[in-house]
Each structure stands twice: as C-alpha cells, then as structure tokens.
Amino acid sequence: METAKNHFFSDMSVMLGRSMRHILRSMDTIITVCITPIAMMLLFVYVLGGAIRTGTDNYVNYLLPGILLIAIASGISYTAYRLFLDKQRGIIERFHSMPIARSAVLWGHVLTSVVSNVISVVVIILVALIMGFRSPAGVLPWLAVAGILVLFTLALTWVAAIAGLSAKSVEGASAFSYPLIFLPFISSAFVPTDSMPSVVRAFAENQPVTSIVEAIRALLSGQPVGNEIWVALAWCAGILLAAYFFAMRVYKKRV
Q1: What are the CA-CA distances from residue 139 to residues 40, 60, 134, 142, 230 (Å)?
Q2: I need a labelling partner for 254 at 20 to 30 A (CA). Which of 8, 144, 193, 227 fits?
Q3: What is the DSSP string of 182-228?
Q4: Which Pfam families is this protein grouped with (predicted)?
C-alpha cells in the first residue's frame, strides 16, 4: 500500500512538473487571466464606483473578493483547454501505456490550475493594493481567505476537467466557463443585493458566489463572519465532491 501511494505521488509530481513547464513557457496564459479582472476592477472603481452605494468608503475593498472569483473562473478555462488537447492528441493514452498511476495525469492538470490561479490572485491583490485596497485582517483571516480561494479553485477545476474530457471541440472545452464568469455579477460581489428586484435578489442571495464573497469580505475587513463561512465552505466542498465524482467517471469512460 505504501509503495502504491509513493508511486502515485511521484507520478503526480512528474505530471505537475510537465504542466507547469507549459505554463512557464507561455506566461501569456497567466497575463491574459489577470488582464480582464484588473481592467474590470479599474472600470468599476474609477468609472462606476462613484455611482454605486455599498455603505463603504473604499469601494475597492468591497469589490476585490468578486474580482478574485472572476479571475479564478476565467483561469480554469485553460485547464479544460489543455486537458482537451491532451485527449485529442492522444497524449493521455500514451501516458496510460506507461507504468504510471492512471489518475496522475488528471491530477497534474488540476494542481497546475491551483498554482497558476494562485499566481493570478496574488498579482490582482498587488494591483488592488496600488489602487488603495487595505485590510486590517491578521494572519489567520488571510489564511482562511487563502483556504477558501484554493477550495473554490479546486471545485471549479474539477468542473473544468469534466468539460475538457467531454468536449467535442476546443471552443466547447473553454466556453463552459462563461456562465461561471458571469455568475458573480448576479451576486453581492459588485452591489448589495438589497438594490435588486425580488426575483433576482432571491437568486443572488442563494447562490454560492454570494456566500463566498461575503465570507471573504468579512474576513478581510476584520468583521464577524457568522455562518457565511460555513455556507461558503459547504458550497465549495459540495461542488468539489460532485465534480470530482463525475470527472473521474468521464475520465474512465472517455480515456
């Protein structure tokens, strides 16, 4: 059993190194993921922020959690794209003909998504600091925020794995992320839900992005988190488990 575990982790580290080399050779992937969220943050803060009433003096503090989620939703589309290319070109089958753990290939793509999205999130936070973002949070709240973002990234990455393995074309592999990118707009990420029509408000207050945004916002502002963090963690864990289960079924069936 111990040998099998060591075999899996060593294979997974090799697959992670392979995928990371692709990322490092094409840094435009991370740059592209960062540009749109940063442009949106600039637009909302400096153009639209004066007309939006959030009850806070610093709109970038209010806005940042939603921007981070948009960046992650945008970044995971590249995971689906790279996974689709590996499947289409027969690279996954080649790896399976070697004496390696079968799931190591898939986990390599997933962990690469986590690493690349962490880099994107750090870049966006640095830009937000230049724009005036400030947080009184200590080390533990920041670690909690990091944990939520990593869990959210893992959950969406496994959703991306399903799309990458199931898609019939490159466009189909990456287009699934568009609704995920749009979802924060129908939440409390940009404006309080109180200003929304009743039907839209009901949806916004009961979808995962709102609870995740509210939990991160409370942690970064040093405010009591309440039940929002548990709701956020439940959403992330539920999506992660369901997506992992279906991704592994598709992986075994299609590859």
Answers
A1: 28, 21, 14, 5, 19
A2: 8
A3: HGGGGTTTTS-GGGS-HHHHHHHHTSHHHHHHHHHHHHHHT---TTH
A4: ABC2_membrane (PF01061)
Q: From the first residue on, what is the mean pLDDT of each consecutive set of 10 residues in the chain (255 residues)?
A: 56 76 69 82 81 75 92 87 82 75 80 88 93 90 94 93 84 78 88 87 91 93 87 94 91 74
What's the pTM? 0.88
List the chain domain ranges: 2-254
- Which pair of tokens denotes residue 223? 């405010």
Q: 């019939």: which residue's tokens?
A: 168
Residue 236 to residues 43, 47, 148: CA-CA distances in angstroms?
29, 32, 8
pLDDT for residue 3? 42
Q: Please give the Cα distance from 21 to 6 (Å, whole number).
A: 23
* Burial of 226 from C-beta contacts in 10 A (0-12 / 13-18 / 19+): exposed
pLDDT at residue 27, rounded to an integer: 64
Backbone angles phi, psi at 222, to 5 degrees: 75, 20
C-alpha to C-alpha distance for 75 and 71, rounded to whole angstroms: 6
* Residues sharing a CB contact under 8 Å with residue 240, sequence separation 6 or more, in sequence order: 151, 154, 155, 158
Q: Closest Cα to residue 157, out of 112, 102, 91?
A: 112
Using alpha carbons, select from 238, 241, 237, 185 the residue that is nearest to residue 209: 185
